[in-house]
Amino acid sequence: HINLIIAHKDAIQRYVRVFQALNIKKFSIVLNPFGLCNLYRYLNPKENQPVLLIDIDLPITEAVIASGAKTLFSRSFKVIQRQENWPDLFIEEINKTVNAYLKEVTGQAPVRAIIFGPPKNSQGFADIISEHLHLPVQALSYKEGLPAGEAFLSGIFKTDNSLAGLMGLGLEEIPESLSLLPKDVKESFKRTSRKAERLRLILLICGII
To answer: C-alpha angle 13/100/98, rounded to 5°?
Structure first.
């Protein structure tokens, strides 16, 4: 399985400069779809069929097709609810995503659609998809399934933004191959890590002596 990621180099370098200015010693930049895939797999570990994951974080919607631990295809688009026919435009974009996946990846069609996002938005979008697409749809409530305190989760679910991808990225170690950091930054982190390991070893030997 090979991941092909297209990202704007200038945007990545801008984030790198921000983190470096904040004196953050080690960081990573990973795309949101991998977090959505992690979160769904954490909540449904036995699922291995292709599913359509839709993250509603208005005005941006992320549509991801995943199977097991693999993120197969993703694209994002805007949903402007001020437009009179916005539900039709939303469905059009979802269809574009599925059709592009079937054309470019030539895999099995998704067997169900899963909606992430603030509760006030997710159920409404689930109803729209259920009405227009021939797919079982579920507005996923993941509040009870995450390893976090009730107060923390309650605060997250009161926001108007979706933090599903961010929470998914925190559930497990992200492979270095998925990081969008420039090569020189990755190498710098490796050198720093090796120096820290050598220092720990020297201190351990001194302690034994």
So the answer is: 105
Q: Cis bond leading into 50, ω under 30°?
A: no
pLDDT in tens, the chain (209 residues): 555 555 667 777 787 788 778 777 777 777 788 889 888 998 888 888 999 999 999 999 999 999 988 889 999 999 998 898 999 999 999 999 999 999 988 778 999 999 998 878 888 899 999 999 888 999 887 666 676 667 766 776 677 788 888 888 777 777 766 666 667 666 765 665 554 554 454 334 334 43
User: What is the DSSP-derived secondary structure letter of residue 138?
Assistant: E
The candidate with the shortest Cα–Cα distance to 109, out of 118, 117, 101, is 101
